[in-house]
Amino acid sequence: MSTLLEILNLLGGLAVFLFGMKIMSDGLQKVSGDKMRQLLGIATTNRFAATTCGALVTSIIQSSSATTVMVVGFASAGLLNLYQSLGVIFGANIGTTMTAWIVSLFGFKMQISLFALPVIAIGFFAQFIPKFAIVRRIGETLVGFGLLFLGLDLMKNAIPADFAQNPQVVAWISRFRPDNLFNLLTLIFSGTILTVILQSSSAVMAMTLTCAAAGIIDFQTSCALVLGENIGTTITANLAAIGASKTAKRAALGHFLFNIIGVFWVVCIFKHFVNLIDWLVPGSPYTQDPEQLTAVLPYHISAFHTVFNVINTILMLPLLKQLAQLTYLIIPKSKREDKKEHELIFLSTRFTNTPELALIAVRKEVERMMSFVTKMTDKLIHAVKIDDDKMFTRLIDDVKAAEKTTDVLEHKINIYLTALTHGNLSRQAVAQSFSLFDVLNSIEHMGDCGEKIARILEKFHDKQPFTEADIDDLEEIAKLTKNITKRTRRILVDIQQPTRQWHLQAEKTFDEALQDEEKLNSLRKRFLHDLRERINAGQSSSPDAITAYADILNNFERIGDYALRVNENILGMRAEERAMNDTPAAVQK
Predict the structure, then answer these.
(1) What is the 3-state secondary structure (H, E, C) of 245-264?
(2) What is residue 41's predicted lDDT score, i.e. its pLDDT?
(3) Is pLDDT at 589 greater than 50 in this prediction?
């Protein structure tokens, strides 16, 4: 009965550790969400920058699983290509070693119970401070930090002091020491399975450090388990890649191959590598003195973890291209890869661990939706003036298909955004989400207007009711509308990676959008006035043709209105406010 109670106490301590790790990671992600977006921009520079980015992000959020899941999501969203994704994953493997060092530095030398509960208390009550969101998030992080070390303390206390000296325990453990290849592979496999079950290499690392400090497992056994943990941690990214794009699947596969290759070469020189760590880190990890063992062994294990990942990254970074090619051999590229127009190709991976970062992928999907409107206006320009019946039919069908795509995408992105807003988002992220709802609605209306124009042209194509002057006018307003939609799409692209220069140009960009919209309105009014003049001059036009012509002009003008609405939401400005700000200047002139 006492043995069962000890096991349950150990598992309870592990559960508290895992819970604290999750809360701390979530809090750190909320505190540093914007910083991670900036680091993501750095990752697109080169492979070395990507690796640095991965190491920094993982060090900040204290979760390599969260980083790799985020990378898989970004790869699926098209924000990172395969090479950049692999570079970030390489860095994440280095960054995750920080957890072991934190546990080694604070978890065994200090009396955890003296500060764990006070930290939890400060963090918990800090979350009730109004107005200051940053304080609440830091409070959440402190609660997680305190629970993490409280769980570690519970695990330490759950192991009896004389457990390692029990003859049966010594005999059982001695059977699994990595003295031969079979035992070494068995231990690596055990570390892998434990990590897969717990879904956290940090938790298994904490267990390894705790058991090693208690003298239950020796240094070489701990190192073998650490190698297994490095393989097991790749399962999270591979699970996240299920249902994602092939690029995301290749990134997850690359993570697995990177760690497998690393473990393979270490297994070949295992004893020499362990001796290298023993030579690098002061103190003997093989001492029998419990106090000295607690003071020395955790640092040796942490050093093994770090040195292994650093050397593996140094060796694999020059071979990044070859590793990517290997993933292409295993997951071949198809001709129709990621060409499903009605599917969410950028939101195929759920950003459950980093909901605020999902907004980047949402904007990417919205930009893709806007691209269909741009294509639609381009098709309408040709449909207005083309004589070939077969080509005309194809153009009209393309416009209708594009409109249907915008409808489907608007519905699916709305569902995703709705689910996202019910998550634990910051106030700023919630504001961005609601702004995107309006953007989606505006783009969908632009698609509706384009379809109406197509149906009008289709209805009157055989009758040829428009004069050459009418067709010239329609072509001119269609080209201006296309330019407006292209400009609007560029703004959606630019917002993916906002910079200080971009913000400085925001007012100028909005003024240009206002000028385009006013030009479109003026053009419509002038063309309608010219139409009346032609009718008064006695030029024959049927009532149906006059109505159709006016409806086409009005729908092009409405596309411009909705495009301006998109600009207002993305740039955070309003046409009325700009007009009021410009009035005094106009009066002075």
Answers:
(1) CHHHHHHHHHHHHHHHHHHH
(2) 55
(3) no
Query: Would you state the pLDDT for residue 445?
Result: 92
The pLDDT of residue 562 is 92
Burial 481-509 (b: 16+ CB within 10 A, else e): bbebbbbbbebbebbbeeeeeeeeebeeb
**Region 111-133: what's the mean pLDDT?**
76
The one-letter code for the residue type at 433 is S
Give, rounded to a whole angstrom, the gap between the first and last alpha carbons of the chain: 92
Higher pLDDT, 439 or 208: 439
Q: What is the 3-state secondary structure (H, E, C) of 323-350?
A: HHHHHHHHCCCCCCCCCCCCCCCCCCCC
Q: What is the DSSP string of 17-81?
A: HHHHHHHHHHHHHHHTHHHHHHHHHHHTS-HHHHHHHHHHHHHHHT-HHHHHHHHHHHHHTTSS-
At 83 the pLDDT is 79
For the ranges 78-92, 157-171, 332-346, 499-513, the maximum mean pLDDT occurs at 78-92
Question: Nearest CA to 264 among 179, 188, 180, 329?
Answer: 188
What are the structure tokens assigned to 163, written together? 């457990």
Q: How far apart are CA 97 and CA 70, in angstroms?
A: 18
Q: To which residue do tokens 């570690």 refer? A: 152
CA distance 219 to 211: 10
pLDDT above 70: percentage of residues in the chain: 74
Which tokens is 94 given?
């280095």
**Does residue 188 have a pLDDT over 80?**
yes
Which letter, b or e, does each residue of 226-240 get, where b requires 16 or more Cβ atoms within 10 Å of its Cβ? bbbbbbbbbbbbbeb
Region class of 275: left (phi > 0), else alpha (psi between -120 and 50), else beta: alpha
Q: How confident is the model at residue 293 (pLDDT cuts 50, 70, 90)?
A: confident
pTM over 0.85: no
Nearest to 61 by CA among 144, 134, 161: 144
Look at residue 168 and tell me whether its pLDDT is greater than 60. Answer: no
Taking CB atoms within 8 Å and a gap of at least 24, the contacts of 190-193 are 190/225, 190/228, 191/224, 191/225, 191/226, 191/227, 191/228, 191/229, 191/231, 191/232, 192/228, 192/229, 192/231, 192/232, 193/228, 193/232
- Give φ, ψ of 276 to 5 degrees: -60, -45
Instruction: Identify the helix (H) or strand (E) that includes residue 570.
Output: helix 543-571
Q: Is 93 exposed, middle or buried (0-12, 13-18, 19+ CB in 10 A)?
A: buried
Residue entry with tokens 């961005």: 432
Q: Which pLDDT score is estimated for 40?
A: 56
